[in-house]
Amino acid sequence: MKFIIAITTTVFSSIVCASADMSVYFNQLESESYTDPYRKITRPGQDLEKVIIESILEAKTSIDVAVQELRLPRIAKALAVKALKDDVKIRVVLENSYNNTLLTMGDENEDDVNQHEASRFVDLFAFIDMDNDNRIEPAEMAERDAVHILHLNNIPIKDDTHDGSMGSSLMHHKFLVIDGETLIVSTANFTLSGIHGDFTNPNSRGNANSLVKIKSKQLAKSYQEEFELMWGSVKAARIPKFGHQKPYRGPKTSKVSSSSVSTQFSPTSRTLSWRKSVNGLIGKTLKSAKEEVLLALFVFSEQRLSDVLQEKFEESTRFRLGVLVEPKFAYRHYSELLDMWGIGMLDSNCQYEAYNNPWALPHYDVGAPIMPSGDFLHHKFAVIDRETVIVGSQNWSDSANHQNDENILVIKDKKIAEAYAQEFERLERKSRKGPPKSLLKRVQGMEEACFSYL
Question: Superfamily for 252-451?
Answer without folding.
Answer: Endonuclease Chain A (3.30.870.10)
